[in-house]
Amino acid sequence: MTQIRDIAVCVFDAYGTLFDVTAATARLKSKLGDNAGQLAEIWRRKQLEYTWLRSLMGRYEDFWQVTSDSLGYAMDTLKMSDPALRAQLMQLYLALDAYPETKRTLERLKSAKMQTAILSNGTQTMLVSAAKHAGIYPLLDQVLTVEPLATYKPSPAVYQLACDKLGVPAARICYLSSNAWDVAGAAAFGFRVVSVNRFGQLPEVLPGEPVATVKSLDELPALVGA
């Protein structure tokens, strides 16, 4: 695979890229039973749909509220009425497990003096909590959230935020995401995008293509010469 040259910073999407969004339901599988997988799927799908729709409608609520609303929808769909369980799932979202290679990849980047950052729809509280739980917070130079913009990815304004906050042009940012719609949005904006395709996801039929596709974050350091 061809090395991606002249990269100043590696910027990571958080949910689905660094953190496993199914971890909350997986930890409560004994309580959720056969509903665990379906609940995780509906919860995540609605979480994303609500960010896109709220952006289009100009009716922003932060990602914590969106996450709560989408969980409520998922539980109602599955006819699960349990306020205590809902509250427990929300709290677990603050402590999602990171994928196994997340920490060692960030450690390799930092040892090579490469800047690292998160750019996410999540709130600052959610992101810092998850990063600290995963033990990766000290390995990040910045944690960037859409909160100041009151809109969500894939708005170009969100990707521009990374350029502005990091002081780096788009062409020198290597952006990592496991979400195909985010890969397309970031690539269309001008980032050098690496698609982290752990589960064989098909590319979206949208403007913007990644410069590389990997199956694991472990492949990243060699790609950027770290």
In short:
With 226 residues, the protein is of the alpha/beta class.
Itemize the secondary structure elements and their pairings.
Layout: E1 9-12, H1 23-27, H2 29-32, H3 36-57, H4 63-77, H5 83-92, H6 102-111, E2 115-120, H7 124-134, E3 142-145, H8 156-166, E4 173-177, H9 180-189, E5 192-196, E6 212-214, H10 220-223
Parallel strand pairs: 1-2, 1-4, 2-3, 4-5, 5-6
Note down, in words, how this protein is organized.
The chain is α/β, with parallel strands linked by helices. The protein has 2 domains: 9-20 and 96-223, Rossmann fold, CATH 3.40.50.1000; 23-94, DNA polymerase, domain 1 (Orthogonal Bundle). The chain is 45% helix and 12% strand. The protein has 10 helices and 6 strands. It has helices at 23-27, 29-32, 36-57, 63-77, 83-92, 102-111, 124-134, 156-166, 180-189, 220-223, and strands spanning 9-12, 115-120, 142-145, 173-177, 192-196, 212-214. Strands 3-2-1-4-5-6 form a 6-stranded parallel β-sheet, sandwiched between helices. Helix 3 (36-57) packs across helix 4 (63-77). The longest helix has 22 residues, at 36-57. The mean pLDDT is 96.
